[in-house]
Design brief:
Layout: H1 3-9, H2 35-42, H3 57-70, E1 74-78, H4 81-90, E2 98-102, H5 107-119, E3 123-127, H6 133-137, E4 144-150, H7 162-171, E5 176-179, H8 184-187, E6 197-201, E7 215-219, H9 233-236, H10 247-251, H11 255-268, H12 274-284, H13 287-305, E8 311-315, H14 325-331, E9 340-345, H15 348-358, E10 363-364, E11 374-376, H16 388-393, E12 400-404, H17 410-425
Parallel strand pairs: 2-3, 2-4, 4-5, 5-6, 10-11
Antiparallel strand pairs: 1-7, 6-7, 8-9, 9-12, 11-12
Helix pairs in contact: 1-3, 3-12, 15-17
The chain binds pyridoxal-5'-phosphate.
Length: 426
């Protein structure tokens, strides 16, 4: 099936007389007839549902659709994008391990890695994704367990060269984990460029209606954990919490996801609500239509902004003069990365605030990837405690406006921006 058909029909395959939509299984527990039947589930000898913290049929049906979309072999939903990022790392790393990570990632992920996971003893080296192979290779250590990056960074828009990053990761004997939230598998399928594991904040375009918070982890099944048995003893060696079972020997290509489900979900419990999974699936049914429109609108708006004298700068990797244009053509179906762009208004922080407050259709919210266009001004919102100087040091110009193009008519959006720009001069 092509990607558009998978968006609509992937995952749940109802049998005769069953509901067309994946049913919401609002149940914590599942009944069995004998003690032995339940014991076999606990020992992972049989597959089946017994407690929703581990697995739930609604969640699995929706995860199966995302696995098909990404072209992977196994996947799972989590309660948020943050939970997906956390599990993707903790499934391979414990105290004393190390990760090489692109410096251009979502601020929440940076904080999670650089503060919270560091407190647990996992070390991170952040590299400029545009640095030379040599510089990036130098960041690896004997205890490095994986490499992490964002296909399209939030909010810088930098595009990760997936093939180059995958080659570097593999030559150092570790998998590449990629956050593919911004392009979604409709525009980019990282496994085709050598990435090994993909994660998503399904909260964003996959849902697309600002209706649920969720995450997903998908494994390509391509990374050979047994080739590096010392590095990935956690997957290869017997797991004492599962009576000496080896994930790679018992589950083959599904080892990574089975471990994340059986061990991390069991212990940390960030399960997605089946209700949220149902809402997510409704979003996925139109993802192929929406994400292309989001990207086209962002492109039109970016091009128009470039013609305006009130605008100091515009950053959208899909523009013809972007240094990432060639990479966009290679990695993204249609050559556009996502619906998010950033720009600055002449006049700095004050002018940006006046501009944002003057918008009528475009809404001020802490979100991206909604069907409704929205804006955020990091200097006034997410990073409001910083001075202009501190903002610049953090790579965020005080005038930076993050604009998430919705799926409205682009002419209406441009007209709204035009009238708001006119207000600055008043
Ligand atoms: N990854 C990216 C690229 C994001 O933009 C976000 C949130 O904005 C996340 C991960 C975290 O997702 P969530 O808010 O669902 O935890």
């Amino acid at each position: 099936m092509k990607i558009d058909t998978i968006c609509v029909q992937g995952g749940w395959k109802p049998k005769k007389g069953e509901p067309r939509q994946p049913p919401i299984v609002a149940a914590t527990t599942f009944r069995y007839e004998t003690t032995q039947q339940m014991a076999d589930l606990f020992d992972l000898k049989e597959s089946g549902y017994f407690y929703t913290r581990l697995q739930n049929p609604t969640n699995d049906n929706v995860a199966a659709k995302i696995v098909e979309l990404e072209g992977g072999v196994a996947g799972m939903l989590t309660s948020s994008g943050q939970a997906a990022s956390t599990y993707s790392i903790l499934n391979l790393c414990s105290a004393g391990d190390h990760v090489v990570c692109s410096a251009h990632i979502y601020g929440g992920t940076y904080n999670l890695f650089n503060v919270s996971l560091r407190k647990l003893g996992v070390e991170f080296t952040f590299v400029d994704p545009d640095a030379s192979d040599e510089e990036i290779n130098n960041a690896f250590r004997p205890n490095t367990k994986c490499m992490f990056g964002e296909t399209v960074a939030n909010p810088s828009g930098k595009v990760l060269d997936l093939e180059r990053f995958a080659k570097i990761a593999h030559s150092n004997g570790v998998p590449l984990i990629v956050d593919n939230t911004f392009p979604t598998p409709v525009l980019c399928r990282p496994f085709e460029f050598g990435a090994d594991i993909v994660i998503h904040a399904t909260t964003k375009y996959m849902d697309g209606h600002a209706a649920q918070v969720g995450g997903a982890i998908i494994d390509s099944g391509n990374f050979d954990w047994e080739k590096h048995p010392e590095k990935f003893a956690c997957l290869v060696d017997p797991d004492p919490s599962y009576h000496g079972l080896s994930y790679t020997k018992t589950f083959g290509k599904a080892a990574y996801i089975v471990k994340a489900t059986a061990q991390l979900m069991r212990d940390y419990g960030s399960i997605a609500s089946p209700f949220n999974a149902y809402i997510l699936n409704l979003g996925l049914e139109s993802l192929h239509l929406r994400i292309r429109r989001h990207a086209e609108n962002a492109y039109k708006i970016a091009k128009w902004l470039k013609t305006r004298e009130e605008v100091a700068w515009v950053n959208y990797s899909g523009l013809e003069d972007s240094p990432y244009k060639a990479l966009c053509e290679k990695q993204f179906d249609g050559g556009l990365p996502s619906g998010v762009l950033t720009f600055g208004i002449k006049g700095g922080r004050e002018a940006s605030i006046k501009f944002m407050d003057s918008l009528k259709i475009v809404e001020i919210v802490t979100h991206v990837a909604d069907a409704r266009s929205c804006v955020l001004h990091p200097a006034s919102h997410t990073h409001r405690q910083l001075t202009d100087e501190q903002l610049r040091a953090a790579g965020i110009p005080p005038d930076l406006i993050r604009f998430s193009a919705g799926i409205e008519d682009a002419d209406d959006l441009i007209a709204d921006i035009e009238q708001a720009l006119a207000q600055i001069k008043e």
